[in-house]
Design brief:
Chains A, B: GO terms for molecular function: DNA binding; DNA-binding transcription factor activity. Chains A, B: InterPro entries: GntR_C (IPR011711), TF_FadR/GntR_C (IPR008920), Tscrpt_reg_HTH_GntR (IPR000524), WH-like_DNA-bd_sf (IPR036388), WH_DNA-bd_sf (IPR036390). Chains A, B: This is DNA-binding GntR family transcriptional regulator. Two copies of one chain form a homodimer. By secondary structure, chain A is mainly alpha-helical. Chain A contains ten helices and three strands. The structure holds a DNA duplex (30 and 30 nucleotides).
Chain lengths: 227, 227
DNA sequence: GTGCACATGATTGTATACAACATCGGCCAC
DNA sequence: GTGGCCGATGTTGTATACAATCATGTGCAC
């Protein structure tokens, strides 16, 4: 297993660390999350690990199988459609609200976010880049000053990261940043209507860049492996 | 023969029972949820109670205060606005989708739902009526065949119930049912655009029937009490 | 050699014991 | 009499021990 920050902490700390690892694709879908293993890695007792896993389970980031353990979630094709449908309802209008409340400081912060994403990409840290790309969306909800929507969007964004891990079609994730750049321009111009439309199209583009034909890429990918 | 109910008392069962009680206003906001007390009531150990309370805490239905215990959540005025803002983004478009997928069986089921709500109201069970009224909204998301949105809406609806408990202005909850009746008519006519508009207005009406002036009705309502 | 039965080991589910902390009462100083 | 200090009591936080369940590997029968 990849090295996870052996940073001792509370159950929430563990949950956040695991969520980051999932978001950054360091823990791919289907990975078994053994309780003893995690308790040794984080240096905390199983009680806290269980609490963390339960939290992630409620957010649909891990799937719990009774008496078998916890695994990083493997969203189905149907779930993938549903997650992006929910995002399509929430994020465009939220982007509009954000554009209205946007300050110059917000714009520069968003730009810095994109720069960091590019830097991570050039450093070969594609997982970190993807994570930053997702946080861009969360940041918009935060600027819109809607913490409830922000929490929902955050959950949907991390689930989207799992979906991308399973169903991404092209290798390069570069194309995205253009959409984010265009969004920043709209924000800088305080053009709420444009931001809303750009966000809607951006989400549509995301879905179409997935391969969501029913293929049940679950464990039984025998036919694909034997071809 | 008390074994008739299979698995009566898992953590999920306890959580569902508590959520129902909260939704029906049998547990008003601010109620202390003592672990020992609950473990005796449900006849299960504290471990399961804690798991249930954690689950409700993640759904923002109970607030956890460290070393002090769990309390039924008391949404602030700001949270109230945020919850209805999120619902305003999700539910109208979902109602439109539901109208398209609506079958005659669905329509009669929704009508039965409203009838049950009226019956509960006339029986003096106002809490149960409110709960059924909320489930009407959840049912629509289910008909739209969007389980992810359904889960989010469910959470928002129960939080709305808490908000209503704290900030409801008028005593009578009768007026609502008219909105639901009009929605059913739109569904029966498979008029998605109308359903979307009706739902949007229904949610706006709900907000305006709340008293959301900053009053911090939290424990420290000293100024109000001393006036 | 194949397939089933069973024993073994490992992992999770649950309960309970103990430690840490907050609340509340009385007591004392001022 | 007011205010603060400080034990007594109860509640929550955490760890650990034990039970239940699943996965694995061996051996036997066919």
């Amino acid at each position: 297993m990849t090295e996870i920050q052996p940073k001792s902490g509370t159950a929430d700390t563990v949950a956040e660390s695991l969520e980051r690892a999932i978001h950054e694709h360091r823990l791919p879908p289907g990975t078994k999350l053994g309780e003893d293993e995690l308790s040794e890695i984080y240096g905390v007792s199983r009680t806290r690990i269980r609490a963390a896993l339960q939290a992630l389970s409620h957010r649909r980031l891990v799937e719990h199988q009774r008496n078998r353990g916890a695994f990083v979630a493997q969203p189905t094709v149907r779930e993938a459609h549903e997650v992006f449908e929910a995002r399509a309802l929430l994020e465009p209008r939220t982007a509009r609200s954000a554009a209205i409340r946007m300050t110059d400081a917000h714009v520069t912060a968003l730009q810095a976010h994109i720069d960091a994403e590019h830097a991570a990409l050039h450093a070969g840290e594609s997982g970190r880049a993807l994570s930053l790309s997702g946080e861009f969306h969360i940041e918009i909800a935060r600027i819109a000053d809607q913490s409830t929507i922000e929490a929902i969007v955050q959950q949907l964004v991390v689930r989207s990261s799992l979906i991308i891990a399973l169903y991404w079609r092209r290798r390069a994730a570069l194309c995205e940043s253009h959409a984010h750049g265009a969004l920043i321009d709209a924000f800088a111009a305080r053009d709420g209507a444009l931001a809303e439309e750009l966000m809607a199209h951006h989400l549509l583009d995301l879905v179409t860049s997935l391969d969501l034909r029913n293929q049940s890429s679950q464990p039984g990918s025998l036919k694909a492996a034997l071809a």
